[in-house]
Structures are given as C-alpha cells and as structure tokens.
Specification:
The chain starts with 7 loop residues before the first helix and ends with a helix. The longest helix has 32 residues. The protein has one domain. The protein is mainly alpha-helical. The protein has four helices and no strands. The chain is rod-shaped, with a radius of gyration of 22 Å.
Length: 107
C-alpha cells in the first residue's frame, strides 16, 4: 500500500493547527494552575490563542467539504456523457473521483 502524502497546503495547515492546539493546551494548563477552582480572567491575546486552532480546523473542514462537492460531480457517471473518445477522461469516466470519495468516506 502506498504511503499517503498530503498536499503541501493540507500538510502546512495540519502542522499549523497542531502548533496552535499545543499552544492553546499549554495556556489552558497555565490558567488552571494559577487559581484552581476559580474562573479565569483572560486577555484578548489569550482568547485569540485559545480560539485560533478552531478557526484553522474550520478552514480545513470547509476545504474538505468543497473538495467533496467537486468529487461528487466528477464521480457521477451522468457527468461523463459527452467525452471525446481518445482522452484520459474517456478511460477514467470519474473512477479516480469515486476512489477519492471512498478513501475520504469509505462507508
């Protein structure tokens, strides 16, 4: 089985998300230690640090959703009714799109 290598964009966003999530977790642990059992007051910068990972995650999820919509179009056999015979598309007829969809959501 071939090793999955994400696109540079997805790889960079995933690394950025992990970095931000680590920083947010560290900040939460610091806040818990300062005054256990007392609601914490946080600054605007701390708030941004806590919510930034979710924004990156939402961006990735939105991109995946758009990719799935596009793959749905190309995976539909009805899309391939008029394809020039001697082209890659004629031999594929959406097979790669269907394979990609099945890798993303195998159910």
């Amino acid at each position: 089985m071939e090793e999955y290598v994400p696109t540079p964009y997805v790889n960079a966003r995933a690394k950025h998300f992990l970095k931000l999530a680590t920083e947010a977790t560290e900040l939460l642990e610091e806040l818990k230690k300062e005054q256990p059992g007392v609601p914490a007051r946080i600054s605007r910068d701390e708030y941004v640090k806590l919510v930034a990972p979710m924004q990156v995650f939402k961006d990735l999820a939105w991109g995946l959703s758009e990719a799935m919509k596009t793959l749905d179009v190309y995976a539909d056999k009805a899309f391939w009714t008029e394809v020039p015979e001697k082209t890659f598309a004629a031999s594929d007829l959406g097979t790669r799109a269907r394979v990609a969809l099945n890798r993303i959501d195998p159910v």
